Amino acid sequence: APVIHRLDYQAPTYWIATVDLTLDLDPAKTLITSKMAVKRNATQAHGALVLHGEELTPLRVMIDGEPVSFRQDGNLLHIDAPDRDFELVIRNTCCPEKNTALSGLYTSGGGFFTQCEAEGFRRITYFLDRPDVMAVYTVLLRADKAKYPILLSNGNLVEQGDLDGGKHFAKWHDPFPKPSYLFAVVAADLVAREQRVVTRSGKEHLLQVYVRRGDLDKTEHAMNSLIASMIWDEARFKLPLDLERFMIVGVSDFNMGAMENKGLNIFNTSALLCSPATQTDADFQRVEAIVAHEYFHNWTGNRVTCRDWFQLSLKEGLTVFRDREFSMDMAGSPSARAVQRIQQVRNLRTMQFPEDAGTMAHSVRPDSYTEINNFYTATVYEKGAEVVGLYQTLLGREGFAQGMALYFERHDGQAVTCDDFAQAMADANPDSALASRLDAFKRWYSQPGTPQVTARGHYDAAAQTYTLTLTQRNPKAGEGAAPQLIPVRMGLVGAEGHALPLNLAGQASVGALETVLLLEQAEQSFTFTEVSSQPVPSLLRGFSAPVLLDDGLTDAERLTLLRHDADAFNRWEASQRLALRRLLDAVQSGQALELDIGFLDAMRAVLRDPQLDPAFKAEALRLPEAAYIAEQLPVVDPQAIHNAVEAAWDQLALALRDDWAWAFEAHQVEGGYRPTAEDAGRRALANLALALLVRGSAMLADPVWPGKAYQQVKDATNMTERFGALSALVQAHAGLADAALTHFHEQFAHDALVVDKWFMLQARTAERDGKVFERVKKLLQHPDFTLKNPNRARSLLVQFCNLNPGAFHRTDAGGYVLWADQVAALDAINPQVAARLARAMDRWSTLAEPFRSAAQEALKRLSERPTLSNDVREIVTKALE
Ligand code: DPP
Ligand code: ZN
């Protein structure tokens, strides 16, 4: 497959203004008739009309009512088309029931569903399947009425009725021109939760959440989240719902989390269904965020879309930023907001930093790809959201909102680029630091790699000055890469823990307690005056830029920040750095980890601090993830990291045993289940405490806490507590773990999303004596396991290979053999999911021996298979480059 380059973008030779689609839905052979108003694009030289089409059977092609000849060349259909506007009619068939890739039109649970982003529409009919071709769609659906009583497409229902032979039809019209990737169809036996809402302008809207019979009671949280999202977007950005009808549909076979099709969002059931009995607090939070994300796309993505797929972060980075802001506002208290930020950063460091350092490293706006599906990445989404956050840091909330307003004023209804967004932000704020540095700022879009920032301070007691020297480098950005614009939010903390007023030499700063320094050169110094005592710098507050910071602080200084920093994020960061230093020392020295009294006392103090929220404590007491630890090391021995982390947990479990017992008892939530940040925080801390109590018990051969946990698996009234107890037993390899797993499986065998959790937990368990690996191999044979359902495949394989390094990287290479076999098997079914699994080897070249050679060997063997999809081929080829 060819490499596609961003700079090769050309507008199309023809536009398509309207599409009239008729689908005669049949699982084995669906007949599609597409009537298109084709417009000549006079800015381009005349040439053949070349349409995309994949796995389709063409029946006939007509121009202005006359049959014309056509030529198929791989996945392209060449038509000799006139040098003018014309009407094009194409009839073709496709086979939904054989579509296991779940891209295009496919069947799931006896219904029809579509997924067209990025390039699925071409698997339904021949088209200019590119996001800059925006058309008005009218869709006529015909299908068996008994099997498919619900027929949905984008926009408004125009007409419906019965047909001969037990069939019926529905006609939908979407008044908004849209790219083909936002097209959607659903035909299935579903039921809906409905709500009518009136928005500020006085317009009434119908909101519907469609699911399979029996799941209706799990849709309340999604509906509430949708309404909250509507209210928030109007209040924060003055963006109202532009549709009379907004539908969400759940489907259990789905490659992504959810899809923002205009007016007809399609959701993976794992991102939609919620009930206290079957979903955890984290699930409730995730559903709220994804419902909001897809809803927010209606403006950032749909009303203004991407000119080409290189601009994907234009809509994804921006929409993730928007859903994060929403979630923080929903969480409420400053502490709950900080916890959200902590979780975002933990996720960024575990998922995106390794990506940015690995074989698939790419900039937020990539320059080339072979398979666009491989670029729905943590970099495009999460780092992209960080970059959008930088605008807000530089412009303030008001300035950012003005930039958004100008962006819509200029580009509503258009397909645009990341440059257009940056320009609108700058033009709306002409006197800002952004506007005067726009080219430098835009390096965030063009340069891959995580910038490495070093900070060193010097206190001059005689002169009462404190000089902070910041440097930056980004080796991954390549030779001669220019410095990036890095906003460093910071403050100075005095020895007694009070915030010091900031007087910055050369600036009219008047003693504020916090400021944002702009690091824009390779090295810069900032001198603060009238500093009466040696300060501790608190840098990169709220994680004000996505960089790796070496702050050079001592343990004592970090303890000061942990206790006193006014910024909750940096208090958490101090806890993580204290732990990280100890873990890295053990890994690098090859010595067994021994946690010192000073560290353990600090952790105990956090746990016992009456001023701190439980949710914050749960985050501060969690150790850094193995993937983040690995990113600090030039050569990675996954087993050494695993051993250090396990030893640290063991010691935290035993040294703080009484404190964990107190924490568990003191944070029980009374009364009915509520998914609030406050209750969820208490449950998170109680679950962490239980995990460490069971762990300690397993080491001490004490039956009490495992017994309590087992009882909780049986008796809990919500999934957060039930799954917390189950995880505690399984993660501790406690004697009761197997019985608890069996009990849990029997209780929830009928609920696919809970069975996914059951697989996931076993695949993610920290390795002990190879037992986890053996269990995963056995689970591959479990009657409930299948590669055909993406959720199930991911719950076992991605969890094990991509997210459990201590179990996956084995000296006998067993994990790699399993990986190569499963990637190949999955690739024959679903290339997108297989390519995700293939990325478990992204960081193979930094592995220590014998892992490195064995990983390379596995990659080579996989790459030599003749039948790999483009998706997996691109990942494997880049890994071996
Ligand atoms: N469905 C994916 C998302 O919303 C791709 N647009 O991020
Ligand atoms: Zn999105």
Automatic annotation (TrEMBL):
Q: Alphabetically, which GO biological process terms does the record hold?
A: proteolysis
Q: Which CDD domains match?
A: M1_APN (cd09600)
Q: Where is the Peptidase M1 alanyl aminopeptidase C-terminal domain?
A: 555-881
**In what residue span(s) does the Peptidase M1 membrane alanine aminopeptidase domain sit?**
222-430
One family name in Pfam for this protein: DUF3458_C
InterPro entries the UniProt entry points to: Aminopeptidase_N-like_N (IPR045357), Aminopeptidase_N-like_N_sf (IPR042097), PepN_Ig-like_sf (IPR038438), Peptidase_M1 (IPR001930), Peptidase_M1_dom (IPR014782), Peptidase_M1_pepN (IPR012779), Peptidase_M1_pepN_C (IPR024601), Peptidase_M1_pepN_C_sf (IPR037144)
Keywords from UniProt, A to Z, are: Aminopeptidase, Hydrolase, Metal-binding, Metalloprotease, Protease, Zinc
Cofactor field? Zn(2+)
Q: In which family does this protein belong, per the annotation?
A: Belongs to the peptidase M1 family.
- Residues forming coiled coils: none
Q: Which reaction does it catalyse?
A: Release of an N-terminal amino acid, Xaa-|-Yaa- from a peptide, amide or arylamide. Xaa is preferably Ala, but may be most amino acids including Pro (slow action). When a terminal hydrophobic residue is followed by a prolyl residue, the two may be released as an intact Xaa-Pro dipeptide
Please list the residue ranges annotated as the Aminopeptidase N-like N-terminal domain.
20-182
Domain Peptidase M1 alanyl aminopeptidase Ig-like fold residue range list: 449-550
Q: Which organism is it from?
A: Inhella gelatinilytica
Q: What is this protein called?
A: Aminopeptidase N
Q: What class of enzyme is it?
A: hydrolase
Tell me yes or no: is Ribosomal protein among this UniProt entry's keywords: no
Q: Does the keyword Metal-binding apply?
A: yes
So what EC number does this one have?
3.4.11.2
Task: Give one GO molecular function term.
Answer: metallopeptidase activity
